[in-house]
Fold each of these.
Amino acid sequence: MKRVAILGSSGSVGRTTLEVIRSHRREFKLESLAVNKNIALLKQQIEEFNPRKVVVVDERARNLLRGKIGKGRVVWAAQEGLERIALDKEADIVVIALSGSAALFPLLAAIKAGKHIALANKESLVMAGAVVMDRLKKSKAKIIPVDSEQSAIFQCLRGEERNEINKLYLTASGGPLYDVPFRRFKYLKEREIMKHPRWRMGRKITVDSATLMNKGLEVIEARWLFDVDVKNIEVLIHREAIIHSMVEFVDGVVLAQLGITDMTLPIQYALGYPRRMTNKQCRLDFLKLKNLSFDKPDTGRFPCLGFAFEAAKIEGSAPCVLNAVNEEAVNAFLDKRISFIAIPKIIEKVMSGHKVTPNPDLNEILQIDSWARQQARALIYNRR
């Protein structure tokens, strides 16, 4: 039985991970979990899965939790608590389902501890891909991607030689706005932007899907995960979301991974790797498939994807700035401090004013991340 730590158990990926554990109780046991501040859900998860260690990042929420989770359970705090869970010797698998750059240090801690890492966070690789992969090479740790697209590529490459890859195709559903005329973007209500046609996801990633920034971040993530030059990565709009990604090899053969739109599949694969576990629910009925269509993304309407490709080509500190500004802009939109169409404008403005550092170390990355956030916040404040 493998012991599992979940960082981000209150989010969509975290909750689905618990569903997988619930369905495979002979295979997995929940050792620890972490949430930001969703105490109500945390107490339900504790009652059902009885983890021995808990992290609540938000201080106010943590104070509300005191005395309400039973005896004999360790409660850790803040960022330090996340890293302690990632380093914990009693956890075999660490699921990193945190949103945004908050995942970077727990990821580095899990790598240091040589863990089996189920990674459902792309921002950490976007902002510090070179640092993360360098440390991974020096560790016994293994990263198994959880995002459906990266999991698809990972599965297509199983048993294949990496030097025989010609191109990676990342598929994208197009998000909630792909069929919406650009002239309507500035009039859209938040509920329209947050209504994804295929996936149920967290708020930040849903906005990123609407701008296509999510796919741009995946391009940079794939560049590091699979050691492929960005010129050999292509994004295809695939509205049906049946093909989750494809790999073209030097001989012209293309391998694709297909499946229904259910995160249970990549999460289960990441937890069970290298074995495949039984799943009787997620079955694809080919007779019901009417069409598998592909289209080229429109970076005129969705400039964030273009910004990501540009940052990926430049490398150095450019992806770090892209990620930091996007996080600030998306949070400002969700807080109703800026409009939806202001997001790409703020990203473009800060990126154009950044002098790229070619090979930043971790300290430089943190400084650049802080600078980019300050620049973004100033622009957001002025737009108010």
Amino acid sequence: MQAEKVDFGKVTAGLKTKSDKIRALSRHGVPTAEIARYLDIRYQHARNVLKEAGLHKVQDASASEMKPQQSYAWVELGPDGALVLPAELRARAGLSPAKVHVRLTDDGLEVLSQTAALRRAQAIVARHVPPGVSLVDDFIAERRREAAREDRGE
């Protein structure tokens, strides 16, 4: 099963600990790095939980080529800081000739497409907004109250 088709919320619903969520997502075929991003934890934490449970899958990276359907590649960093990413990897990550979001993490650099960065930001906000609450509706209502106060001269 591919991670793109897994509803992370459904898989983790009712699970109380991050470790339980890590194991459940892994059993649904979600890669360790995606589990760590979804749960907002370090990759090493997810890896350690999976390794202890016998669920961690070690991937064999080849320094010279990228195998079909592979999620990683060794690339050379040019003297000017340029990275040339393999076409298949860019396509699978949704990266096109456009701006990408690059973030320094404890483990290195993370490169996200604009769509992926937006999805992550939305997920972060969603964790802090109670179900059924619309921030847009709340904002519009507040702006209307403010305009009404101004109209009354308050």
Amino acid sequence: MKEFFEKNKTFLAIVVGAAVIGAAIYFSPEKDKKPGLTSGVQSGAEECQNIPDLPSGTAKLITKIIDGDTFLIEGGYSVRILGIDADERDHPCYDAAKNRLEELILNKEVKLEKGAEDKDQWCRYLRYAFLDDTNVSLEMAKEGLAVARLSPEDVKYREEITKAESQAKADKTGCKWSASAQASEDESSRVLTWEKLTPELTGLKLAGACEAGNYQNQEIIVEGKVAAAYRSKTNTIFFNFEKSYPNQCFTAVIFSSSQNKFVDSPEKYYSDKTVRVRGKIKEYQGKPEIILDSPAQIEMGK
């Protein structure tokens, strides 16, 4: 027996090593994570593995409303409603749209109808939602709680939804088109002044937040509204521009090692403000970002 082990020790070491690796993979906590669930953590798009098929026309119970165009179904899977775009958290009509969607479909069974694509990059099912004969997208647009937003491929309900949006806009219906919403829009469109981060003073290109992805590995100035800002568990601060995560156009990041150089609580100071940031554009998990090491890289418009 001893002679057998001596002659085959290399082979046996390989077998034992493979067994250990296999056991580690099998019992890993990552193994049982269910994709398609909302986590609230800023991370990139998950790979849409092991998400069950959801045939067009399937009826599902709605268990939670995320915002005016996103909800969870039984099993914890996320669905993004096709045909409309409602405000994200920290935007003026977020609560109105979310509350109305809760009234319409929460704890009810809705029929989910496929569009041109099955899922998006965040592993959410893309579906039109119907409560009995009511097209939820059409209803939200009609009530002035969401804008029409359809891809070129999705033509099935395009005419009805765009007409409903136009009528709501003409009648100043709902949160999106009311007089108070228009006043807020006028305020946000006022011309801001900048003292430091201008093309003239820096010689750098100025781009809007949603254009930043076109300037990979280039140093530019990015301008946009900080739609949401927060401090993570690792003490990293994220500024998400134009929309909240995961729909942001662009992100500026301050790591904990640099935060002593900035104002106290930058995530509160710059939230909901129009700012410019300067730096080299990098891509992280599918989104353009700039790392802020110095307060000289960020300026709030006045």
Amino acid sequence: MSISRRSFLGLIPVVPFLSSAQPSPPASKNPRFPSHDDESVREIVGVSHGNLARVKEMVTARPALARASWDWGFGDWETPIDAASHVGNRAIAEFLIANGARPTIFTAVMMGQLAIVKPLVESSPGLQRLRGPHGLTMVAHAKAGGSAALDVLKYLESLGDADPRYPDVPLTEAEQASIIGEYSFGPGPSERFNIAKGPRGFTIQRPGGAERNLFHHGGLVFNPPGAEAVLIKFEGDTVAVEDGPLITRARRI
């Protein structure tokens, strides 16, 4: 079942295109050292959607950030070049590649590189069905590439299955009311999340975290974007978040 344009656009997390930011904390104050600090990683991925000046500033100062990766939730990892690729920002993508970023097939799709995309798909049948960050498809990346990616778009559309969509089964009013609310999965004040319905559909969000869309399979079973193997199942006032054998249970407050 296809999803609406509103829901499809809702796959993309809301990120600030910051023009300036506080300096990154020194290693002695970074609890994740020798890993990059979370603030810098989240910012470089965020600004790589559309703020070339800030991308240049950050990567020039710290070149390794060109290959950083941020998990928006449930394993929906995104690198700076992933961000530039799915919004069609060729200038940022080219700058990142010149500074050590690793382009993916989704980058090649967005940039209209048919000579790269076609052999990869032909050598790995079914590759065209692969989803990128936020669950965005190859066709979506080709459309983001505009006129430069028209030949790639035509090729992908000719395959017939390069634009898989998440299920979007409608919920009754009673079903909607039964899942909306705040849930707790531990004693701490931050060990909770909120299920809400907004203009982009149903979402799940922890305090201070990114808002993630939910896609309904039916029977009050959902998946978040970019992590179709993760299932979120509601039953009464409880919810189970199943990530393979790892199951987190929460109860509505």
